[in-house]
């Protein structure tokens, strides 16, 4: 198993949780972003800087992810693609994307995008909270235990 992180918009606190979990479980992890990212001095944690551009990091992750890998992303289209590849997708708030719920999430995202493009203010995501951090950490621990079997 490999952990792939869509790192451009991933909160720092989530990256820190991931760094500790990867080291603790000795699970290889790669952060993918279109900017330089610093990683801890650990041989199983790496980063890849991709070219700037729309979906370049997402495309890299889709290309590299294998069945059983874990992908951390808030990007619903990316989550949909990796779920189709039989990888596991988890967002930074601890929500697991599955084949059962990803189509609904994708439809809602597209609907909200249509509203925004027609001038409707749909608001944005709520602020990242301590509860979100806990939900993510708990879900990550469950997934790493399950996927390691």
Automatic annotation (TrEMBL):
<dbReference type="Pfam" id="PF02639">
    <property type="entry name" value="DUF188"/>
</dbReference>
<dbReference type="InterPro" id="IPR003791">
    <property type="entry name" value="UPF0178"/>
</dbReference>
<comment type="similarity">
    <text>Belongs to the UPF0178 family.</text>
</comment>
<protein>
    <recommendedName>
        <fullName>UPF0178 protein F0U83_11485</fullName>
    </recommendedName>
</protein>
